[in-house]
Amino acid sequence: MKKFLGVKSFLILIIVGLVITSCNIDDGTDTIPIPETDIVEIAAANADLSSLVAALQRADLDNTLKGAGPFTVLAPTNTAFSSFLSANGFANLEAVPAEVLEQILLNHVVTGRVDSAPLINLQRNYLQTLADGPNGSKLSLYFDAVNGVEFNGLSSVIETDVVAENGIIHIVDQVIAPPTIDTFISSDENFEVFATALDAAAVASDLPENLKEGAGGPYTVFVPSEQAFDNLLATNGDWDFVSDIEENLLAAVLEHHVLNGNIRSTDIVAGNMVATLEGDQITISSRDGNLEITDGSGNEGTPIEIVDIQAANGVIHVISNNVLLPDTTN
């Protein structure tokens, strides 16, 4: 069974890693020397990053990345940009609307100097980029560093730890578009059972496609942990896998985990009852400073363990122990 980070440690470990990394790079005699060239100058000196430099100039971000920072930049190669433009129907960089290009590029920038060491030590977790999400939020970035370093399930690091005066560069093989909720569900293996459940319910619900494309969003999604699904399956002798659950029932259960709107943890008002996409209400309460959910069937005490995994079309919170159940009597 895979383990989630607790809500209080989620992203805090990343912040600690940033601080430690910044100190380790430039302190002591055995550390990496910091050059006098900034991120943009280093990129401009690399022929394989000429598309990135052109994109930064077009989006008016080159001066930003010449600033003090520090920044961590995931730098797509020229081939990565060519593939992205072709896949999205753009003839060239000039065809991409400047505001769209700006957000794509900011999705490759993280505040702080993050070398590969803390990513490898944490193995799997999330960073926060400078790209804009709903309601003034910033988009999350998932990394898997178990075997190499990969971001959002699609972009692999091909050269790590290129040090600049104002940060660090990791060269990647794909452009990382702003993520949807489905991006994280598909790439974070902690969400594997939830992803399987969405696939199984697709014939009875538009939810899987909406989470992928962002139609009708933003959404707030409470994703049950694998243990929560195990506990649900144990209640019925005919259920060995989530795909064994009748499709309409499974669709109703999944939609009972989704709210309209981008509701981050700081937006939650304890005690409020909120309608789910399925129709029944859930109640979010606070106990000893921890958030818990009472579902539509009246089952209390489902803890929210991880909060604020932010996508372009909504936000994910992870719940443990229980799958939320609608009121099946209605």
3D structure, described in words:
This protein starts with 11 loop residues before the first helix and ends in an 11-residue tail after the last strand. The protein contains 11 helices and 14 strands. Helix 1 (12-26) packs antiparallel against helix 6 and helix 8 crosses helix 11. It has 330 residues and is α+β, with helices and mostly antiparallel strands. GO terms for molecular function: cell adhesion molecule binding. Residues 36-176, 178-323 form the FAS1 domain.
Count of runs of 4 or more consecutive helical residues: 11
Q: Poorly predicted ranges (pLDDT <50, ≥5 residues)?
A: 1-30
Number of domains: 2
Radius of gyration: 21 Å
Computed structural class: alpha+beta
Helices and strands in order:
Blueprint: H1 12-26, H2 39-44, H3 50-58, E1 71-76, H4 78-87, H5 98-106, E2 109-111, H6 116-122, E3 124-132, E4 138-144, E5 150-151, E6 155-164, E7 167-172, H7 181-187, H8 192-201, H9 207-213, E8 219-224, H10 226-233, H11 247-255, E9 258-260, E10 273-275, E11 281-287, E12 290-294, E13 302-311, E14 314-319
Parallel strand pairs: 1-7, 8-14
Antiparallel strand pairs: 1-2, 3-4, 4-5, 5-6, 6-7, 8-9, 10-11, 11-12, 12-13, 13-14
Helix pairs in contact: 1-6, 8-11
